[in-house]
Design goal:
The protein has 3 helices and 4 strands. By secondary structure, the chain is α+β, with helices and mostly antiparallel strands. The protein has a single domain, classed as Ribosomal Protein S5, domain 2, CATH 3.30.230.10.
């Protein structure tokens, strides 16, 4: 589970990351990455829309994305904001697949320590 300090909670922060961040597209997710030099923590946010499926499926996808991002926290540079948008195909994706997509997106965004 991500600590409160590692979660994006304000809508303005989501909007800024999606609009001004780097977009990395994969089969099941779209990842937006923005670096804030004034921040000292890595923050993640998740967008799982109704196109993914029922509430049960959406929550399962969100939990899988959170678990995958939790494992990446120690490897990331401080000040990174990462927003992961789940695509409809993510409802049937395995956890390992989602983990690999987020890991690859973070690598492309040059956010590893």
């Amino acid at each position: 589970m991500l600590a409160k300090a590692n979660r994006i909670t304000r809508g303005a922060d989501y909007k800024a990351t999606v609009r001004r961040g780097t977009r990395i597209t994969a089969a099941n997710t779209v990842t937006y990455i923005r670096t804030d030099p004034d921040s000292a923590v890595v923050r993640f946010g998740f967008i799982v829309g109704k196109t993914v499926g029922t509430a049960v499926r959406r929550n399962r996808v969100r939990r899988r994305l959170k678990a995958a991002s939790y494992e990446l926290l120690p490897q990331l540079q401080p000040g990174a904001d990462v927003v992961v948008r789940a695509l409809p195909a993510s409802a049937n994706a395995e956890w390992a697949t989602l983990h690999e997509e987020i890991s690859r997106a973070v690598s492309k965004g040059n956010l590893r320590r």
